[in-house]
Structure formats: C-alpha cells, structure tokens
C-alpha cells in the first residue's frame, strides 16, 4: 500500500470511491444537483454517511467512530472532491465534530458525537464574531443540515452554541452561486430566542483557530481529489483525440503540460498527507501549507484540463466546468491562499534569527 | 522507516570528533557550484572517511561494506549534512560505480577497483555526455576498438564533473562500427593519467570550473577493463544511474533548508520581510521545502517495499526548479547589494543564484524530465525519433 496508507485505508477508499463514482455517473450527478436547484442529496447522505459509515471515520471510537483521524478524513475528502457529491461532510464530520470533541463537555460529546458518527446529524458552522447584526452571508451547507453551530464572543472568551435549523426566527437563505454543487447561504439568527440556543462550550480564539484550521486539511484533500479527477479525464481524452493523424497525447506541448499538472498534483498531495500526519505542534503550519498549495493547484489544474480538452472542455455538457467552478469557490473558502502564505511568512520570520 | 540501528549515533559521534581542526574551513563547502573549493584538503578528508570505514557503508559486507539499509543510508546522509560535511569528492565512485562493479563486474575488477574507492584514495568521474550526445544521450560518437589486448579510445566527453580531481573515468563508447543509438556500446574503465587523455576545465557563468571536457586521442585501457560485453554499454550505463536510490535526497534537502534559513534571516535583518511580495515568495519557498521532504519520504517508503512509485519521477524537476527560484529570491532579498561583489568574489548567495541555472539542465533537463514523467508516470506515447524534419545547413 502506498505510504502513508494502510490496507484498511485502501479498503475505505475503494468503498467511498465506488459509491461516489456511481453517484457522479460521468457528470450526471452534479448536473442533477444543478437542475434541482438545491445543493444537497439526502439519499446520498443516508447511503454514504449512514449505511457506508463514512461519517464515523474521524470520530473517536469511544463515541462510535472509527478513530482514523485526519488521514481517514483525507481519504473521504479526496473521493468527495473527485465526485463533487453535494454532502455536508466537511462541516459535519470536520469542523463541528472537532469543535465538540475539543471544547464540549462529556455530556455534550456523549449526546452529539454518536449521532454524527451514525450519520444522524448534519451540521454547519458559522463564525459570528464580528456579525453585529447577527447576520452572515457565507455559510456553507446551512440549508442542508439540521443544526447550526455558531461561535460568538462572550466577553474575552469565545462561546459555541448550537441552533436547530427549525428554530423560530432563524432565516437561512441559499444564494444562487457560480458553483452549483455546494450550498452557500446567508444566515440571520437575530430573531432566535436564547432558549433555542444550547451552549456547547467556551474556548479561546487560539484554540478555535486551531480547530477550524484542521479542516483546511480536509479542504485541501478535496482539491487534490478533484484535481486528480481532472488530470485523469484529460489523459483519457488526449489518448483518444486524434488530430494531424496522431493522438494529441503524442505531442510534446500536451505531454509537458500534463507532466506539469502531475507535478503540481503530487506536490499538493504531499502537502496534504504531511499535514494529516503532522504532530499537534506542527499542525497549524502544515495545514496552512496544504490549503494554500492545494487551492492554487486545483484551480490551475482545472483550467489546464479545460484548455487541453479544447472546445469540448468549454461546453456545459462536459462536466469539467463543475470542477473549475468548485476550484474557484475553494480559493475564497476560509480566506485566500495569499493570506495563508502571509500568515506562514509570519511564522517563518518568528522562527529565524 | 520503523527499524532503528545505532549507525546514526555512531556516525554522528565520529563526525563530531573528526570533522574539526584543519577541516573546519570545509564546513558547508564544496556543494554544487563550489566544487572546486579546497581540492587538496577535500581529498584528504575523503581518506579520513575511508580510513574510518565510512565509505561504502551501503555495500555488501563481502566487499567491506556494512550492508546498511536504506533507512540507515538516509540517516548517514542526514548526519553528514547536519554536521556541515563538505560535498563528497568520492560520491561517483562510491555510490554509482562501485554498486555497478559489484553487480556486473568480474571478480578481478572487484579486487582491482573497490579497495581504492573504499579507502578514499582513488576517485572516479563519469564519461557519458558528449558535445552531440546531451539530452539524446545514446547518440554517442566516442569510439573504442580492440587492438592487441587493449581498448583504444578516440573521441570527446563533456560536462565531466570533478575530472580534474579524479584518477579514473568510466566511458561509454561505440565499439561496433556503423551501430547507432543504444546498440554497439561498451562501458570501459579508464585511467585518466595517460598521454592519450587531455582534460580541459570549462569556465562556467558562475565563474567556477567544476565541469570539464575530456579528450581521448588513442587513450588506452586493458581488454579486461570492460563491464559487461560488447553491446552491453547502454544497459550498464543505465543500471549505474539506477543505483542512486535517493538516500542522499534528504541530506541534500538539509543543505537547501540551510540556504533558505540564511535568506529568510537576511530578509528579517534588512527589512525585506516587510515587502508583501517577498513574504509570499519566502512562504512559498518554505512550503516547497516541506513538500520536497514529504515527497521524498513517500518515494523512499515505496522503494523499501521494492516498488517504483510514480511521484519519484518528479523529484529532479521539482528540486531543480525550486532551487533556481530560491536563487532568484536570494538576489531580490539582497536588494541593490546583490550587485556588489565583496572582495571581488561572488558570495554564497550570488553563487547559489548563478549556479542554480545549471540545476535545471544537468542530470536531465527540465524538458527531458517532463518527457520522462509524461511517458513513464502518465503512460503517454513516446517521443518519435527524427520525424523527417530536414536540418538546414
């Protein structure tokens, strides 16, 4: 098995891939989501998160999970990225599961984590620290979940509360977005009664950042999975497309661009796997590198894939545009790559004499 | 890389006790771009390493090695870099030729050549490239013919690293008249100190001259100084390149990390760290360093399991391009002072900038690396030869 994965990891990957590529169905899956106007597939969630057990992957064994940590989550996110399947895995099994595990009381953990592991809870996360009017405009998956976890200032500390999406006064408005496969919502909780909010726990800004940044690794893995899918499609196309009496794959202009795509993807892959394996003290730095590198790589690869497909790559019918749009959206998720690199530069300069 | 052994600790202790005194001036020196530094002292250092048994630790025990695992070889190279050991003058003999002789050579060749390599007293250089056989390496024109029990060699090799400090050269030459490409080649072991051989250093844009031209005019070696048979030259030449299993990669990366830290530290001292674009480039260079390390681990793990992993093919182009970019970053961090030669000489960063232009050329250009990746890692069609294009002139 290819380092750093074990045979167990590989079995999980194959199970996830089997399910998700059936869903993807040569691009029919994302198109169906686009046509439906709602970026969520409840049957796919029940099958993937519940029956297949994928929601349990990174949850602690004590709470009914598989305890496979960041590396397990990377496998699932790569396969989600390769299919663009519209499921709120990143927020439910990433940020929210980690938040509860990190700052929840034992009672909260006993209550919530087994539900997440079983695929019975879907959750979104929003950062309301600077939302004076209790409104934000960029919460992913808010309209596909049953619970929203909100972090907000409470004096010098940060408090995390949960709000059921059916709570009175909670207004969730899905936006029309360029990437139709991931939901993106405005959320207004100004009318929610305090009784409908359950305090999960208190934390510091530093701890919250550390928790949220672990999901950078998942986002980066999604990028790697999507980029690999685009390279695979490009290689297949270039091998069968004949011009000048030759498959275009035999032209150096095509070969070299594919080679550059390969280098870029494998470098991003290394950054992601390194971050998944990083020790706690190195996690933040490694997560910054993984995300910044992978979002740039993904965008470049999807653009290259469209270019190398020629005219057909530019059609709506051919599914490359869905990956291109997701890659674009990822560039502004959790902040931009230039901002990540700037934060990394600060860490580097703190470290040198 | 789970097993542990005491080789790392043993070698580290030896370096600590011996890499000092007169050798102090070699610290961090003689890396690529600086290989002509302190030639005499570096050869003496090799003898020091050899006498203590630190040359050939990866060889089988039967030939005086320690049969070290890949993990131990990685540790060995890391410790060497950590202690600031100079570029190894003997690495071509130790890590490339010796494994080739052990695998394909005769018993007599092993007896004749391995002890000098092992002792750090005999040095080798590689006679592959020719003026018209660069990227198209198999287009070799140097000729060898057998006459009265000797091979007579005529032709020219070029870009021969360390020829001026070497005692021997291994030469790939054409032994069958009229043969082309990979056929009809021989792999010969030739003593450099003879009247039929002339070595001329090539002064490079970096001002240094670690590459050479080697001219053969009736040069000779014994009939027995051939590895494999007539026509096996290409196979042996490629097998030799395959013996570099990447053990030195992590050591090389430690040298890169030192260079990076020096540049980051300069940016902090001279205020360039405030420049937003410099900050981006510093951060990206650092990310590249981390990516190189993890990619090397992936490749090493795969090769321990006897597999050739796809990502191994990207190693050369990735580090070469990264290092070239680092050189450019170094100059921009230096600002206007990048132009000034202290004491009339290039300083370390200026040398890095200039020499790194060769990183993307030697050992297979970036363009050839892309062909290799496309064909071997991605399974795309091979480059056609010729193609009916008429060369004017």
Tell me what the structure shows.
The complex is a heterodimer of chains A (353) and B (393). By secondary structure, chain A is of the alpha+beta class. Chain A folds into two domains: 7-203, Acyl-CoA dehydrogenase/oxidase, N-terminal domain (Butyryl-Coa Dehydrogenase, subunit A, domain 1, Orthogonal Bundle), CATH 1.10.540.10; 206-351, Up-down Bundle (Butyryl-CoA Dehydrogenase, subunit A, domain 3), CATH 1.20.140. Chain A has helices spanning 7-24, 28-36, 42-51, 69-83, 89-103, 106-117, 205-240, 252-277, 283-309, 320-331, 337-351; strands at residues 123-127, 135-140, 147-154, 157-164, 171-174, 184-188, 198-203, 242-243, 246-247. In chain A, the strands form three sheets. In chain A, strands 1-3-4-7 form a four-stranded mixed beta sheet. Chain A has a three-stranded antiparallel beta sheet with strand order 2-6-5, with no helix packed on it. Chain A is globular, with a radius of gyration of 20 Å. Chain A starts with 6 loop residues before the first helix and ends with a helix. Chain B has three domains: 7-89, no CATH class; 125-242, Butyryl-CoA Dehydrogenase, subunit A, domain 2, CATH 2.40.110; 249-377, Butyryl-CoA Dehydrogenase, subunit A, domain 3 (Up-down Bundle), CATH 1.20.140.10. In chain B, the strands form two sheets. Chain B has a four-stranded mixed beta sheet with strand order 1-4-5-8. A four-stranded antiparallel beta sheet of chain B has the order 2-3-7-6, with no helix packed on it. The N and C termini of chain B lie far apart (57 Å). Classes of the chains: A alpha+beta (353), B alpha+beta (393). At the A-B interface, helix 7, helix 8, helix 9 and helix 11 of A face helix 7, helix 8 and helix 11 of B.
């Amino acid at each position: 098995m290819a380092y750093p994965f074990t045979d167990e990891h590989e079995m999980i990957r194959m199970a996830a891939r089997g399910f998700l590529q059936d869903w993807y169905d040569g691009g029919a899956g994302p198109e169906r989501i686009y046509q439906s106007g709602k970026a969520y597939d409840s049957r796919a969630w029940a099958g993937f998160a519940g029956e297949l057990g994928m929601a349990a992957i990174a949850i602690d064994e004590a709470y009914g999970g598989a305890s496979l940590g960041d590396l397990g989550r990377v496998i699932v996110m790569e396969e989600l990225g390769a299919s663009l399947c519209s499921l709120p895995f990143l927020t439910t099994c990433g940020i929210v599961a980690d938040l509860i595990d990190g700052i929840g009381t034992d009672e909260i953990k006993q209550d919530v984590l087994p539900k997440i592991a079983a695929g019975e809870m879907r959750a979104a996360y929003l950062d309301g620290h600077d939302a004076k009017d209790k409104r934000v405009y960029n919460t992913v998956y808010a309209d596909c979940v049953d619970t929203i976890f909100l972090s907000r200032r409470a004096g010098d500390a940060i408090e995390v509360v949960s709000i059921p999406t059916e709570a009175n006064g909670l207004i969730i408005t899905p936006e029309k977005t360029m990437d139709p496969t991931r939901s993106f919502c405005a959320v207004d909780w100004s009318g929610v009664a305090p009784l409908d909010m359950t305090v999960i726990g208190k934390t510091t800004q530093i701890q919250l950042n550390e928790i949220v940044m672990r999901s950078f690794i998942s986002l980066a893995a999604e990028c790697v999975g999507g980029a690999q899918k685009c390279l695979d499609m490009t290689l297949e196309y270039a091998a069968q497309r004949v011009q000048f009496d030759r498959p275009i794959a035999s032209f150096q202009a095509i070969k070299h661009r594919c080679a550059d795509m390969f280098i870029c993807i494998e470098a991003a892959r290394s950054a992601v796997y390194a971050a998944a394996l990083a020790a706690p003290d190195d996690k933040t730095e490694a997560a910054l590198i993984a995300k910044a590198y992978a979002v740039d790589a993904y965008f470049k690869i999807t653009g290259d894939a469209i270019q190398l497909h020629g005219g057909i790559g530019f059609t709506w019918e051919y599914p490359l545009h869905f990956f291109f749009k997701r890659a674009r959206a990822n560039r502004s998720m959790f902040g931009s790559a230039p901002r990540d690199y700037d934060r990394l530069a600060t860490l580097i300069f703190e470290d040198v004499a | 890389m789970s097993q542990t052994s005491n080789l790392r600790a043993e070698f580290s202790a030896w370096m600590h006790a011996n890499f000092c005194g007169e050798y102090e001036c070699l610290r961090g020196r003689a890396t690529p771009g600086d290989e002509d530094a302190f030639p005499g002292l570096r050869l003496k250092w090799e003898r020091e390493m050899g006498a203590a048994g630190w040359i050939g630790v990866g060889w089988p025990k039967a030939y005086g090695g320690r049969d070290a695992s890949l993990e131990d070889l990685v540790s060995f190279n890391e410790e060497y870099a950590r202690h600031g050991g100079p570029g190894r003058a003997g690495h071509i003999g130790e890590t490339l030729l010796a494994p080739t002789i052990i695998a394909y050579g005769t018993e007599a060749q092993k007896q004749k050549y391995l002890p000098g390599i092992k002792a750090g007293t005999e040095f080798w250089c590689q006679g592959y490239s020719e003026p018209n056989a660069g990227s198209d390496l198999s287009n070799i024109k140097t000729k060898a013919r057998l006459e009265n029990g000797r091979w007579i060699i005529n032709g020219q090799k070029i870009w021969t690293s360390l020829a001026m400090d070497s005692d021997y050269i291994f030469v790939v030459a054409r032994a069958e008249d009229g043969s082309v490409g990979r056929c009809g080649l021989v792999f010969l072991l030739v003593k450099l100190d003879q009247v039929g051989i002339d070595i001329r250093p090539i002064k490079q844009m970096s001002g240094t001259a670690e590459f050479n031209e080697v001219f053969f005019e009736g040069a000779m070696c014994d009939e027995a100084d051939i590895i494999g048979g007539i026509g096996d030259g290409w196979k042996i030449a490629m097998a030799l390149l395959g013996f570099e299993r990447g053990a030195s990669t992590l050591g090389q990366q430690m040298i890169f990390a030192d260079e990076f830290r020096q540049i980051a530290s300069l940016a902090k001292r001279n205020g360039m760290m405030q420049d937003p674009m410099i900050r981006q480039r510093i951060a990206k260079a650092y990310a590249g360093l981390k990516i190189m390390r993890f990619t090397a681990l992936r490749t090493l793990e795969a090769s321990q399991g006897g597999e050739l992993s796809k990502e191994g093919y990207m190693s050369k182009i990735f580090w070469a391009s990264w290092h070239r970019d680092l050189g450019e970053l170094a100059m921009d961090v230096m600002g206007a002072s990048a132009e000034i030669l202290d004491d009339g000489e290039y300083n370390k960063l200026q040398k890095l900038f200039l020499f790194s232009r060769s990183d993307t050329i030697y050992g297979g250009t970036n363009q050839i690396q892309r062909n290799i990746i496309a064909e071997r890692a991605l399974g795309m069609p091979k480059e056609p030869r010729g193609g009916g294009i008429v060369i004017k002139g």
